[in-house]
Design a protein that fits this description.
mainly alpha; membrane; Carboxylate/amino acid/amine transporter; transmembrane
Length: 299
């Protein structure tokens, strides 16, 4: 088959693109669930993690069976990154989506590539090449252009500020997760690290739920449960493993640059599914982001 002749780099780029697609649909599923029933962020995130749990348990056990035991440093990395990446970042993001649109959420959340690159340069000794810098400038110019209209006409300023603060905090948590995942994946392997980090996130989420909600809160209407399953499979399990595999092949900095395609995908699906406005500025921004993605994906 043709893909068997692909280089590790091309496979990494393809995995990063598919991961961006899966993650871009998360905000759509969340907004649809909020519209379907009066479900809160903690309960909705708990459903997402519960439905994801079997896959991560199976992969974690399979990947750890023949692998050497984790050192104390490995456990610390898994614990901290798991708490930051898919518990802290996801909880803050779900809270933010109660106040702002899916499109605006993507704009704020996708400050994380810049934060990740800064973290990598300051603490991990990474150096940015000209292609990465150019790709970053193109992508963020596109994002800024695509969302300029939304920021100008957004109503309920207080709600936008509250939601924006939650999502910005989510972006910072996720940037630390992505920057730290590179060394952890190199030591533990993509599948093992992802499964263990997600198990930590799931445990933290369920403890949060049990401490603040009655167990009966999980008994939601069928549409909410179906959106929970969709979030678990389409926007959690599959893209999480794809993203880790992409990091292993092309590195976290390049992966997050390619991931800037996500906001444009969310804009499109927000327009198609949620009837969110699609302006000429957003289309022009999408062109710039795609140009940045193509540049980042070139070998």
């Amino acid at each position: 088959m043709p893909w068997k002749n692909w280089s590790a780099e091309r496979i990494g780029v393809a995995l990063a693109l598919l991961a961006a697609l899966g993650f871009s649909l998360k905000a759509i599923f969340v907004k649809l669930a909020y519209a379907a029933a009066p479900v809160d962020a903690v309960t909705l995130l708990s459903l997402r993690m519960i439905f994801s749990l079997p896959a991560f348990l199976w992969v974690g056990l399979a990947a750890s069976r023949s692998a050497p035991p984790l050192t104390r440093g490995d456990w610390l990395a898994v614990l901290l990154l798991g708490l930051l990446g898919y518990y802290g970042a996801s909880m803050l993001d779900f809270l933010g989506l109660q106040y702002i649109s899916a499109g605006l959420e993507r704009l704020i959340l996708f400050t994380y590539p810049t934060l990740t690159l800064i973290i990598a340069v300051l603490w991990l000794g990474k150096r940015l090449g000209r292609r990465e810098i150019a790709s970053l400038l193109l992508s963020y110019a596109g994002i800024a252009l695509a969302f300029a209209h939304d920021l100008r006409v957004a109503g309920e300023t207080d709600a936008v500020l509250v939601g924006g603060a939650f999502v910005l905090a989510s972006s910072l948590c996720y940037a630390i997760y992505v920057a730290g995942s590179g060394p952890a994946i190199a030591r533990l392997g993509a599948a093992r690290f992802t499964a263990l980090a997600m198990l930590v996130s799931t445990l933290a989420t369920l403890l949060h739920f049990l401490a603040t909600r009655p167990l009966s809160a999980l008994l939601q209407p069928r549409p909410v449960l179906l959106y929970g399953v969709a979030m678990a499979v389409v926007s959690t399990v599959v893209p999480a493993f794809m993203q880790s595999a992409a990091v292993r092949r092309i590195g976290p900095e390049r992966m997050v640059l390619i991931g800037t395609l996500g906001p444009m995908l969310t804009i499109f699906f927000g327009w198609l599914v949620l009837d969110e406005p699609l302006s000429a500025a957003q289309i022009a921004g999408a062109v710039l982001v795609l140009a940045g993605v193509v540049l980042a994906g070139r070998g």
